[in-house]
Design goal:
The complex is a heterodimer of chains A (237) and B (133). Chain A has helices at residues 11-14, 35-43, 60-69, 73-81, 98-122, 136-141, 145-162, 175-184; strands spanning 3-4, 19-20, 24-29, 51-55, 84-88, 128-133, 163-170, 187-193, 202-209, 219-224, 228-231. With 237 residues, chain A is an alpha/beta fold. Chain A is 38% helix and 25% strand. In chain A, strand 10 (219-224) and strand 11 form a beta hairpin. Chain B has a five-stranded antiparallel beta sheet, sandwiched between helices. Classes of the chains: A alpha/beta (237), B alpha+beta (133). At the A-B interface, strand 9 and strand 10 of A face helix 1 and strand 2 of B.
Chain lengths: 237, 133
C-alpha cells in the first residue's frame, strides 16, 4: 500500500514511510506538544495535493499568524493557491458549542459537498489531505458512549472515502473521551510534554499503526523555524 | 516569538552525544543492558552488550513494573537506587531533570567500579538532556 508523506521531518522513518492512503490517524496530545503544528505541516506536506483543514477553535488569521512566526510559509502559499480549504466549525455569534457546530458539519453540511469532494479525491493518491484540529469539543458534545462510537465510526468512514486524515485529540478530558477514537482510528500517535525542560521534554510515540511495523519507543521532538515540528530518532543498540 | 522555538534545534547532535556515552558504558563487560527512561516511566532507549536472551525478560519486565515507583523515589532527592534481583544487580541513576539511567549488571560484576562509571555516565547524560530546547 502506498504511503503519504506526513510533512513532519523525521516522522515518516518512525512508521516505515508515512501514512497509509485513506486512513484516519489520531494524534493524542498534551497542551503545547505540537499537535496543531503537526496538522499545518501535514496539510501542506504535498504542495499539489488538495487539502481541507477543519478547525474547531482556531481562526484562519490566528493560524496564519502562528505559521508566519514559525516561518511555515507553505501553509499560506497553498491556501492562496486555492489548494488548501479552511473551515472553521465554530462561531462567536452563535450560542452553539464548537462541538455542536462540528457535529452539524460532519453529519449534515458535509453531505452537500460529499459528491464534489469524492470526485476530487479520486484524482489523487490517498485522496484529499484532511486535518481536524482538535476533535475534543465534538467528543465532549456526545456524552452517551454508544452514540459516540456510532457517530465517530460514521464520521471516520466518510473521511476515509474522501482522503487521508489527521485528527487531533487533547489529553486530559478523561479516558472515555480518548478510548473510542483510539480504537476506531488506523494509527494512534501520542505527543507528550512533561514540562520539565530539556531534550526529552516533548516526545512522540507511535502506539498503534495498523498494517505496519513502527518505532516502539518515544522519540524527542522539537520546533525549528522554517521546518516546524521535527522528530529526532534514538537508535537502540 | 514563542520561547519554545529555536533557530537551530540541538536534539539530533545531543542524541549522538548520548549515544556515545552509552557506547562508552556498554564497553564494560560487567554491564549486560542499559536503558534510558524518562521520568514518567517511558523507555527512551535500550542498549544490549550482546544479543538479548530470554533470561533477561523477567528482569526487564520487573524494571517496567517498578520504574514508576523508582521515578518518584528519585524525584525526592536520591541520586541512585540499587536493587538485587535473581542474582543480578540493577542500578537506577537520576540523569538530569527528566531521565533515569538504568543498568543491569552481570552476577560477577565489580560493583564498586561499575557504580563509579554508571554515576559518571548518568551525570554526563543528564547534562546533555537538560540542555533546554
Amino acid at each position: 500500500m502506498a504511503r503519504l508523506k506526513s510533512g513532519v521531518p523525521g516522522f515518516d522513518q518512525l512508521v516505515n514511510g508515512g501514512f497509509h492512503e485513506n486512513s484516519i490517524n489520531l494524534l493524542l496530545a498534551e497542551p503545547g506538544a505540537g499537535k496543531s503544528t503537526f496538522c499545518w505541516q501535514y496539510v501542506y506536506g504535498d504542495p499539489n495535493q488538495p487539502a481541507l483543514f477543519i478547525s474547531l477553535e482556531q481562526s484562519l488569521a490566528s493560524i496564519l499568524r502562528d505559521c508566519k512566526q514559525l516561518k511555515l510559509h507553505k501553509f499560506e502559499e497553498k491556501y492562496k493557491k486555492g489548494l488548501l480549504q479552511y473551515h472553521l466549525a465554530f462561531s462567536e455569534e452563535s450560542d452553539l458549542t464548537s462541538g455542536r457546530v462540528a457535529l452539524n458539519f460532519f453529519m449534515e453540511e458535509l453531505n452537500d459537498y460529499l459528491g464534489v469532494l469524492e470526485e476530487t479525491s479520486k484524482q489523487y493518491k490517498g485522496g484529499i489531505r484532511i486535518a481536524i484540529d482538535p476533535m475534543t469539543p465534538l467528543m465532549l458534545e456526545i456524552t452517551d458512549l454508544n452514540e459516540q462510537r456510532n457517530i465517530i465510526q460514521r464520521i471516520f468512514s466518510r473521511l476515509r472515502r474522501l482522503g487521508t486524515t489527521v485528527v487531533t485529540l487533547e489529553k486530559g478530558f478523561g479516558e472515555s473521551q480518548e478510548r473510542i477514537p483510539s480504537y476506531l482510528c488506523d494509527s494512534l500517535i501520542e505527543l507528550d510534554n512533561i514540562g520539565l525542560g530539556g531534550i526529552l521534554n516533548r516526545t512522540i510515540r507511535i502506539r498503534k499503526f495498523r498494517g505496519s511495523s513502527h518505532s516502539e519507543q518515544p522519540n524527542p521532538i522539537g520546533f525549528e523555524v522554517g521546518k516546524g515540528l521535527i522528530v529526532h530518532e534514538f537508535k537502540n543498540k | 516569538m514563542n520561547s519554545r522555538i529555536n533557530e537551530q534545534t540541538p536534539p539530533s547532535s545531543a542524541l549522538n552525544e548520548i549515544d556515545l556515552e552509552f557506547d562508552y558504558l556498554m564497553n564494560f563487560e560487567d554491564i549486560t543492558v542499559s536503558f534510558l527512561y524518562r521520568l514518567d516511566g517511558l523507555n527512551i532507549s535500550t542498549h544490549f552488550s550482546n544479543q538479548p536472551t530470554s533470561d533477561l525478560l523477567p528482569i526487564i519486565t520487573w524494571i517496567k513494573n517498578v520504574i514508576g515507583k523508582i521515578s518518584s523515589e528519585l524525584a525526592t532527592g536520591f541520586s541512585s537506587i540499587k536493587y538485587s534481583n535473581q542474582g543480578q544487580c540493577i542500578y537506577f541513576y537520576r540523569a538530569g531533570k527528566t531521565a533515569i539511567l538504568v543498568a543491569i549488571l552481570s552476577p560477577y560484576a565489580n560493583l564498586g567500579l561499575m557504580e563509579m562509571e554508571i554515576n559518571r555516565v548518568a551525570t554526563r547524560v543528564g547534562k546533555i538532556i537538560d540542555l533546554d530546547n
